[in-house]
Amino acid sequence: MLTKDDSNKKAPFKKSFSKGRKKVKPEFEQKVIDIARVTRVVKGGKRFRFRTVVVIGDRKGKVGVGVSSGPDMRISTEKSYADAKKNMIVLGFTGSTIPYRVDQKLGSAKVLLKPATKGNGVVAGGAVRTVISLSGIKDISGKMLGAKSRLNNARATIEALKQFSVKKNREIILKKAEKVEVEKKPEAKKTTEKDQVKK
């Protein structure tokens, strides 16, 4: 039985080890933009699975969209994250906005992206806004003109941003370099029958 003296005593100090540990920041930020429950009818009844669409990005020019399904939410989200990481694009322009206007169609989804002045912010909605904000673009105007499917709109936005990707820029530079080389090469003189007779 507790006495009056025991009750007045303070509880012993417990050392917590969690405070000393630093939280490891993930490589990419992720956002789940769509969750769908997929049902498959089999002999014994119905089988339920979950399909998730995930957008990942580092807000510094890298962004990707992934989709996958699994028996529960956690597994499908992890698989979607891995799929998005495989299909990432790297933007290759400087500044807070895109260089020029882009109209992109993918399936029934249509996306329009326009450059905006500094301080305008991201004027877009739905999946387009998520992809743009995670890519690191700060000033842009976007519009969804086709279907409302979040997956298709996210993929259409990625396709539109691919025009400004490092990979695309390299391809354009290489094509220009090839054209210059072809133009610089002197044309070989055609030898006629008269020239051969002279020799």
Kindly summarize this structure in a few lines:
By secondary structure, this protein is of the alpha+beta class. It has helices at residues 4-8, 73-86, 126-135, 150-161, 166-184, 193-198, and strands at 29-42, 45-57, 62-70, 89-90, 102-106, 109-115, 122-123, 140-144.
What do you see in this structure?
This protein is α+β, with helices and mostly antiparallel strands and 199 residues long. It has 2 domains: 29-89, 2-Layer Sandwich (Double Stranded RNA Binding Domain), CATH 3.30.160; 91-179, Ribosomal Protein S5, domain 2, CATH 3.30.230. It is built from 6 helices and 8 strands. Helix 3 packs parallel to helix 4. The mean pLDDT is 83.
Question: What are the key terms here?
Answer:
single chain; 199 residues; alpha+beta; Double Stranded RNA Binding Domain; Ribosomal Protein S5, domain 2; 2 domains; four-stranded antiparallel β-sheet; 29% strand; extended
CATH topology description of the largest domain: Ribosomal Protein S5, domain 2
State the end-to-end CA separation.
126 Å
Strand content: 25-35%
Regions with little confidence, pLDDT below 50 for 5+ residues:
none
CATH class category of the largest domain = Alpha Beta
Which helices and strands, and how do they pair?
Layout: H1 4-8, E1 29-42, E2 45-57, E3 62-70, H2 73-86, E4 89-90, E5 102-106, E6 109-115, E7 122-123, H3 126-135, E8 140-144, H4 150-161, H5 166-184, H6 193-198
Parallel strand pairs: 7-8
Antiparallel strand pairs: 1-2, 2-3, 3-4, 5-6, 6-8
Helix pairs in contact: 3-4
